[in-house]
Input
Amino acid sequence: MSLPDNVITAPGDLEPDLVARARRGDREAFADLYHQHYRMVYGFLLVRTHNRHLAEDLTQEVFTRALRHIDAFTWQGTAFAAWLTTIAKNLYLDELGRGRTRWETLVAEFDHPGEAGRDTEAFALRALEAVETHQTVRAALHTLNAQQRHCVELRFLDELTPQETALAMGRSVGAVKTLTYRALRKLRGPVEAVSV
Output
């Protein structure tokens, strides 16, 4: 059986065949993809939502959309898991935009009315430090090459395990660990320079 011309296959990987079969309407092939990737997608969403029921609902929606748009998926050097992660991230952001997921912001408590100014000032300073830290991290990430940046974003911003990152990037776990090590080593310079 041959795959369509626009499908780039990974050596020894059965996933491209499963995707090709699912694109032709093979329900068993899509079920296999579902079983292979459900845990990763659910974990990705659970970390973000902190709500099992919402994570389950969004996970089901990820696979519903994936099935509906499987013809739009093309192999471009990344795994099917990366495409699912993108769908999950977009659904999660949509969920935040709809406001169905509530986020609580902690505010300084005022135990002593006479000291309220100091508590408010300390809270404002912590918020300002958080913004500065975010800007520092963003600037540091731009010093990495595309593969290193993608790896660090998956590992630390998306909070994927090395195994999940390897699957999403279409690389081995060892390659992901090497990319992570080199990226963190490279990041150490710009972050230390800013903090001096």
About this structure: Helices lie at 15-23, 27-49, 52-68, 80-98, 116-141, 146-157, 162-169, 173-195.
